[in-house]
Structure formats: C-alpha cells, structure tokens
Amino acid sequence: MSLLLISGTSTDVGKTVVTAAVAAAAQAAGRSVAVCKPAQTGMALGEPGDLAEVTRLSGVARTLELARYPEPLAPDTAARRAGMPLLSLGETVAAIDTLRDADLVLVEGAGGLLVRMGEFTLLDLAQKLGAPVLLVAAAGLGTLNHSELTTRALAAVGVPCAGLVIGSWPTDPDLASRCNRDDLPRVTETPLLGAVPAGAGQWGRDRFTAEAPSWFPADWRP
Prior knowledge:
8 helices, seven-stranded parallel sheet, metal-binding, 24% strand, P-loop_NTPase, alpha/beta, ATP-dependent dethiobiotin synthetase BioD
C-alpha cells in the first residue's frame, strides 16, 4: 500500500477535485485506489459529501468517511458544537490501515495542513503514518505566502511534500496567476506538478477520467 495525504493551503482551493484527479490518474495506470476522508463537515447524514464527488468524477468505488458534523466549521469545532466525540489519531490510523489492500490510499484533509480534524491535524497524521503530503494551492494573490508557510511547516517536522498542484487554473489567468505559476516552485523549493482546469469539477466522469492523467507529469506515480 502506498499512502498519499492531500492538503490545501487553505479551504476552497480544490482539494476534492485534485483528490479525484490523482485517483483517476492512478487508476488509468492500472492501480487500485481507495480514498479516506476522516472528517466531513457542513453535511447532514445521508447527504452526498466530498467522497461522493470523488466517486462521481473518478469512479473510485472504495471510500471511507469516519465522522460527519452538520455545521461547516473546522471538524474539532463542529464536533464540540454538535456534542459529538472528536476523532482520535489512533482510530484514524487504524481505519486507514483497513484499506491497505489497495495499491494507493489517498487521505483528503480538511482545509489547511494545521486544521484540527479532531484531536490531531493532517500534519500529525502524516508524521504518524510516515506519508508524504500533496499540497493543493490557489492560483492568485496570496498563494505564495500560504504555500511557503505550509511547505515550511512540513519541512520543519521532516514530512516530505510530494509536490504542488494548482487546484483551479483560470481559463484566462491574470498577471498574478501567471507569475505565481513560475514563482511557486522557486519560493517553496517544491515541484509544481500541474494545474487542474477551472470548472473541471463540473465535468462528467468520462471527460474527467480521460483528461486527468494529462494534468500531471507522465513519469509521476502518485
């Protein structure tokens, strides 16, 4: 089993679509994929969440969600407000281990690297699992600061960054976005693996799975 954790520089940067794209690319290469979302917020029980979207786009059938909270807040805050138990690091690691028969297990975080998914952050989980983190970044102003802060946090505790992916690349990028695409790998000292076209999350599965592998380097194996 290979493990890859997927985090963002902030919320709403495209983590779920990137997760689906990595899953589609891995499946196109003949690898079996499972996806775990430890904590989902802002959804009632029975409503389709991020994992349903990953399945819709990529066709991944094996997914695992450990906790769901109704309010759209950080998971630990949402759990406390709902009077529900916080996820622990140990139970999350144990749940991910049940997916070990997949060739690749993707774990999608909540918001940024240090958002608490319970009693722990995605950074804590990456350290415990000894797994790299793929970082999803925005295209526009502010992304250089957010991205460098995040890659420095990873480096400070020895967690490898598997690379950067721009979660939504504009159809008509402005000057800041064009400059950021050149500057991101320089300031973070991390390779920019690719960019997902804006609106790709609205595509149907056939188009998404056909195009997703082209968004990453041909020699990159997630």
